[in-house]
Amino acid sequence: MEAVRVDKWLWAARFFKTRALATEAVLGGHVHVNGARVKPAKDVRVGDAMQIRIGTTEWTVDIHGLADRRGPASVARDLYEEREESREARERAALQRRVAPPPLGADLGARPTKQDRRRLDALRHAERRRRRGD
């Protein structure tokens, strides 16, 4: 095997759970091969460099093997080698996410029960009446 479609390779290398998700990512411009945006049918070869963005995580990998079938994770790891600067950047970003304060509104707690909601509505209604001067 000399070349494999980029969407098949991404799926076989276990970057995406389904081939459809891999195709969507490629069409969305989240995958670049050798610095260029590609289409899902683009062939990748051993030695190509690939940049992959999944959510906020970015990977830069060198392709070391080809596969058009999905196999075990141990085999998938042998298909590529992540570049050192990419790994360090991912680890730094993960550390920043862990130590960052939670986003505003994330500490609201559990969803209010029906009884809680009725009490809140009664308080809001009373506050509106008080402001109007009723």
How does this model look, in words?
It is a single chain. By secondary structure, this protein is an alpha+beta fold. The chain has helices spanning 6-12, 19-27, 73-77, 84-99, 114-132; strands at 4-5, 31-33, 36-37, 43-44, 49-54, 57-63, 80-82. The strands form 2 sheets. It has a 5-stranded antiparallel sheet. The protein has a two-stranded antiparallel sheet with strand order 1-4. A hairpin with a 2-residue loop joins strand 5 (49-54) and strand 6. Helix 1 packs across helix 2. The radius of gyration is 24 Å and the shape is elongated. The model has no long low-confidence stretch (mean pLDDT 92).
Q: Secondary-structure map with pairings?
A:
Layout: E1 4-5, H1 6-12, H2 19-27, E2 31-33, E3 36-37, E4 43-44, E5 49-54, E6 57-63, H3 73-77, E7 80-82, H4 84-99, H5 114-132
Antiparallel strand pairs: 1-4, 2-3, 2-5, 5-6, 6-7
Query: What's the architecture of the domain at 4-89 in CATH terms?
Result: Roll
- Supply the CATH class of the domain at 4-89: Alpha Beta
CATH topology of the domain at 4-89: Structural Genomics Hypothetical 15.5 Kd Protein In mrcA-pckA Intergenic Region, Chain A
What is the beta-strand fraction?
Answer: 15-25%
Taking pLDDT < 50 over at least 5 consecutive residues as the criterion, the unreliable ranges are none
Number of strands: 7
Largest sheet: 5 strands, antiparallel
The CATH homologous superfamily of the domain at 4-89 is called RNA-binding S4 domain
Rg over C-alpha atoms, rounded to the nearest angstrom:
24 Å
The helical percent reads 40-55%
Q: How are the strands ordered across the major sheet?
A: 3-2-5-6-7
Task: Identify the overall geometry.
Answer: elongated
What class do helices, strands and sheet pairing give?
Answer: alpha+beta
Number of helices: 5
Order of helices and strands: EHHEEEEEHEHH
End-to-end Cα distance, whole Å, is 82 Å
Mean pLDDT: 92
